[in-house]
Write a structure and sequence with these properties.
Radius of gyration: 23 Å
Structural class: alpha+beta
């Protein structure tokens, strides 16, 4: 974890290879998860949406589905008009689910979620869910049973992937902390005027530790002495067994933390437009406001058998790299991949299967929709925060062209 002025950067390495990258300014960012008391400014029946003043520069957007009950089975069979649910001037509590991006305001919901280390607490959801990434049915049943035992009244709980194998005591502590936090938020909502911020989501360090810590991690490095104590406290709270693996990095041979572990170099390569593949092929990566397009090319790779074998091997290699880069860049929205044309249907199926396998490793919900009529692979990835690519690049005020901002460890 690298601290540079107001910028905090974190990298997750597996066998020395970058698999995830996080970037956040210390102040004025990280709005997703924040809870506000807002006031409805305008209701638009034609869009089934409302605009809510939560105190930010632009009013937040609230769609009708985010007003209905979080439990689908408890929603009305006929979707009502939004005019039946909210009125201009009405005050209500909302949570940011998608940050303001470009000229759009934040998107908000009344389906509140408070993530903990092992579970997600939902004060009004009235159900227990278990992460689909937890495979054994016996473990899923155990966690669901514990969830039902822990929740009170209309509460909902989702067991995160990290909950697999955890004790009931750990899960109980997690839900107790989240419940106390929600009561404090609700109390502030009763006392404060609208618009007011009632709860600020955890900063990047807590989120990274909460979401990525695993007991098999070898080392946790941080290069800022002032932040070391905070990191130690978070480890004590979440995973005490890892405290001994937390280390303060001091420059070695004049090299900063991200240089010593080759993170800076890997980040630079990951955000290039043209990304080389180990075999000699390459990707061409284009991101727009509407979607992300990835083109796969064989490049210098000619293979040793026939053309179809070369194409298939390049596409499989590309699938692995694309999945890794989606996580590093934190890409959201629609993703279109133009793999090299394959003649054999079984090869197409195996490439899509590989993308599905890699999607299951992604903490962010990623859905592989399949092949289009033009032979393109279509995917979607949940978009909540401004992705790292946009934070690392800026727009020229004169021509609008993209330009690289300060990058890791610079």
């Amino acid at each position: 974890m690298h601290v540079h002025g107001e910028m905090l950067q974190a990298a997750l390495l597996e066998n020395g290879r970058l698999v995830e990258f996080f970037l956040e300014k210390s102040k004025g960012s990280g709005l997703v998860g924040n809870v506000y008391k807002g006031r409805v400014v305008n209701v638009l029946p034609g869009m089934q949406a409302a605009f809510v003043d939560i105190g930010l520069a632009k009013n937040a957007f609230l769609y009708i589905d985010e007003l209905l009950h979080p439990h689908l089975e408890k929603q009305p069979k006929r979707k009502p008009s939004i005019k039946e649910l909210v009125n201009p001037g009405q005050e209500l509590l909302v949570q940011i689910m998608k940050e303001p991006i470009g000229g759009k305001g934040a998107r908000v919901t009344t389906h509140f979620t408070l993530p903990g280390r092992w579970l997600v607490y939902m004060p009004n959801a009235d159900y227990v869910g278990v992460s689909k990434k937890i495979g054994p049915e016996s473990e899923r049943g155990r966690l669901r049973s514990i969830g039902e035992k822990l929740r009170e009244k209309e509460e909902g709980i989702i067991m995160r992937t990290a909950a697999e194998g955890e004790s009931e005591q750990s899960l109980h502590s997690d839900v107790t902390r989240a419940r106390a936090l929600w009561h404090a938020i609700a109390d502030r909502g009763e006392r404060l005027p609208a618009p007011s911020e009632l709860h600020k989501e955890a900063g990047l360090m807590r989120r990274v530790f909460r979401d990525t810590l695993k007991t098999d991690m070898d080392e946790i490095w941080i290069d800022d002495a002032a932040s070391l104590d905070e990191a130690a406290e978070l480890l004590q709270e979440m995973t005490p067994g890892l405290q001994g693996r937390l280390k303060l990095y001091e420059p070695r041979n004049g090299q900063a933390l991200f240089d010593w572990f080759r993170v800076g170099m890997q980040v630079e390569k990951a955000f290039e437009r043209r990304i080389s593949l180990p075999s000699g092929g390459h990707l061409v990566w284009e991101e727009t406001e509407a979607l992300t397009v990835v083109d796969v090319n064989t490049g210098k790779f000619t293979g040793s058998h026939d053309l179809e074998d070369t194409v298939f091997r390049t596409n499989m290699e590309a699938a692995d790299e694309i999945a890794r880069l989606l996580r590093i860049r934190d890409v959201g929205g629609i993703i279109i991949v133009d793999f090299i044309d394959m003649q054999h249907e079984q090869h197409r199926e195996r490439v899509m299967q590989r993308m599905n396998e890699k999607a299951r490793d992604d903490r962010t919900k990623t859905t592989v929709l399949g092949w289009t009529r033009l032979g393109l692979l279509e995917m979607t990835r949940k978009k909540a925060r401004e992705n790292a690519a946009m934070q690392l690049t800026g727009r020229c005020a004169s021509c609008g062209a993209a330009s690289r901002r300060e990058t890791a460890n610079k």
